[in-house]
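User: Hi! I'm working on a homework problem where we have to compare a predicted structure to a textbook description. Could you give me the structure for the chain below?
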Amino acid sequence: MKIHQKYILRCIELGKKGLGSTAPNPMVGCVIVHKGKIIGEGYTSPYGGPHAEVNAIHSVKDKSLLPKAELYVLLEPCSHYGKTPPCADLIVEHKIPEVIIGIEDPHDKVAGKGIQKLSEAGCKVTVGVLEEECRSHLKRFLTFQEKKRPYIILKWAETQDGFIAPDPKLRKSTPEPFWITNPYSKQMVHQWRCQEQAILVGTQTVLMDNPKLTTRDWNGKNPVRVVLDRDLRIGTTFHVLDKTVKTLVLTQVKDASCYSEGIVYEIIDFSKAIASQICHVLYQHSITSIIIEGGSRTLQTFIKENLWDEARVFTGTSIFESGLPAPKLHGHLVSEQSILTDTLSVFTND
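Assistant: Happy to help. Predicted structure tokens:
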């Protein structure tokens, strides 16, 4: 394996440690090498904290080695002041002579400016190492920057005979989830929730299931709850309006006197394409990734407008015979695995 690829792969490994905490910043890893030996490593801190390059440089015990070292990083070092000072300036300050970058940063405040700053300071800069792997790792950030929308993950569970919810007659009188999958699959879903910035459901899902949309079965942060509620039919007794988690309600009701304090409301036009409007609102709120969790109509809306990147579909052992049919999509099956009695199929929208 070429030496540059070896260290960029290590940067990807490090970057994964930031999953669920760095957004809307990208999950970047950085490695500093001196005479074939790694002398410093770092990855992006939770949002608002130091970037990968800063953490890697600070981890080097003998700073006198930096003017004779190479710095490897997944994404072009930033060149502007944001929550933190520019990483390119810190690299120049420590006189690091060579910088190897996975891919250029498409962010309009960077977009080659970091590379230019390093080159003008005398650094030898190499760009374009394992680009495909870097893009795959940074898919949330890149989708947000390039497509001006979040990375969209569709998720549902269906029965052996293709239903995602039973006939209403099989439900209890009080709203609660009707589980198709086993507890292990449920725990996996809670892990996914803490990895993404937001989670979205439609009105009917809330009224039927009264979900909490939190990470109760996994140690991690709760995603922002996004709820479609065209006519504000969801009452304050439902979990999604309990104000324990930041919640964004998309509605057509403009009368603010109908709003609940502590909940964020955004107006969209439900008579037009909904998914694209949702993406626009989420982009304005700097949400880089979202799980669309239901119901069938909401999921199918994103499929119809071709606004999805990945679909994660569980198939349980239940058979309903009648009920609400599962969404239909045409995607590329990339993986299939058993979660005890369930099957998890992952599709991409190629």
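For your comparison, note the following. The first helix runs from residue 3 to 15. The chain has two domains: 1-142, 148-348. Good luck with the assignment!
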